[in-house]
Amino acid sequence: MTLDRDAFFIDGGWRAPATTDTLRVVSPHSEEVVATVPEGSPADVDAAVAAARRAFDEGPWPRMSPEERIEVLQVFSGLYAARLAEMADLITIEMGAPTSFSNLAQSPAPWMQIEAFLGIARSFPWEERRPGVLGPEVVVRREPIGVVAAIPPWNVPQFTTVSKVVPALLAGNTVVVKPAPETPLDTYLMAELLLEAGVPAGVVNIVAAGREVGEHLVAHPGVDKVAFTGSTAAGRRIAAVCGEQLKRVSLELGGKSAAIVLDDADLAATVEGLKFIGLMNSGQACVAQTRVLASRASYDAVVDALAEAVAGMKVGDPMDPATEIGPMVAQRQQERVEKYIALGQEEGARLVVGGNGMPDGLDRGWYVRPTVFADVDNRMRIAQEEIFGPVLSVIAYDDVDDAVRIANESDYGLAGTVWTADPEAGLDVARRVRAGTYGVNTYTMDFAAPFGGFKASGIGREFGPEGLGEYTELKSVYTDAPAM
Question: Gene3D superfamilies of this UniProt entry (predicted)?
Answer without folding.
Answer: Aldehyde Dehydrogenase, Chain A, domain 1, Aldehyde Dehydrogenase, Chain A, domain 2
